[in-house]
Design brief:
five-stranded mixed sheet; single chain; rod-shaped; D-Maltodextrin-Binding Protein, domain 2; three-stranded antiparallel sheet; Arc Repressor Mutant, subunit A
């Protein structure tokens, strides 16, 4: 969702208005003012407001004291509003419309008409069909929405981006997801290895020692010194694999693997998608690996926002469809 830097804090009191005077005016009083002037009757205004007549009369007395004007007066058998009151009708209506928008926009979200911008930071380790399908799903239900998809890179501080409202949602996999954010698990995936169809392991398999010694390719770490989930698990087992290549472009790795002796170890779902398009084979990983868990993360600031909740539901639905 599109964010803007907050304006520099200023006094909430309009220029030329005494603060003590301004503090005596509340939204309820403006609602009474607008209703009484529209109905030209205290009794009819009371019915419309769901108040008793003495309460409306007391509010009208306060309004008369604040304005120094009777606001509504008798003319023969009818009640008419004064010139001062006439000038107050549209400003009062404007204040009530602004208040309604202020509070309903935080509760209501109409995907069909909203021109909101959704900003997502996502790992490309996911199923290659996930992001395309998510964008299609969002646009089918929110045709006016804009979508920005950012990579989870070593330069990006996704915690800060979520906290500052620069990103609405982060999607990726972690061995231990951060505990300072709201978390929802999306799915789990089996860890397998991807090799060329010409690789020896594609024909005869391998043992743990052979797998560790093979030429592995891995994505670049998300920050200097970081280790991916696979290497965190190996480290916990006292093992190290032979990483000979790294790439910041995960989506290009399968093409590199298809024409070399390189080995990519990642989730089965991703491997199955790319193996249908390239001369690749999926082989079991001989080192016991826990499933890869994928999550969506968001900040407390968007926990109850209707649009943000709608976006999280679209993500869950798209994952389920895959």
């Amino acid at each position: 969702m599109e964010r803007h830097a907050p304006p520099t804090p200023q006094s909430s009191t309009p220029a030329g208005v005494d603060r003590a005077f301004f503090d005596r005016v509340d939204l309820h009083l403006i609602r009474v003012l607008y209703t009484v002037l529209g109905e030209r009757s205290v009794s009819r205004a009371a019915l419309r407001l769901g108040m008793n007549q003495p309460a409306v009369s007391a509010a009208l007395k306060r309004l008369r004291e604040l304005t120094g004007d009777p606001l509504i007066v008798r003319s023969g058998a009818e009640m008419v509003i004064t010139d001062v009151a006439q000038q107050m009708i549209e400003p009062a209506a404007s204040v009530l419309r602004a208040a309604e928008a202020l509070f309903t926009e935080s509760r209501d979200f109409d995907a069909r008409t909203s021109a909101i911008t959704f900003t997502i930071a996502a790992s490309d380790y996911l199923d290659p069909l996930f992001l395309p399908r998510l964008v299609t799903d969002i646009k089918s239900e929110a045709p006016l929405a804009r979508i920005e998809i950012h990579a989870l890179t070593r330069e990006a501080d996704y915690r800060a981006q979520l906290a500052q409202g620069e990103v609405d949602l982060v999607i990726g996999n972690w061995l231990q997801p951060p505990d300072d954010l709201h978390i929802a698990q999306l799915f789990s995936d089996e860890v397998v290895s991807l090799v060329s169809r010409e690789h020896p392991a594609a024909r005869s398999g391998w043992n743990q020692e052979e797998w560790l010694a093979a030429e592995h390719i891995a994505p670049m770490p998300t920050y200097p010194g970081a280790r991916g989930v696979i290497d965190q698990v190996l480290s916990g087992l006292g093992l190290t694999r032979n990483i000979v290549a790294r790439s910041a472009y995960f989506g290009l790795i399968p093409e590199m693997v298809a024409h070399s002796r390189l080995v990519l170890t990642t989730g089965r779902q991703h491997c199955e998608r790319v193996a249908t398009q390239l001369p690749l084979a999926i082989v079991p990983c001989p080192v016991p690996m826990p499933p890869l868990h994928y999550y969506q993360l968001w900040h407390a600031r968007s926990q109850h926002a209707r649009a943000a909740r709608w976006l999280r539901e679209r993500v869950k639905r798209t994952i389920a469809s895959l």
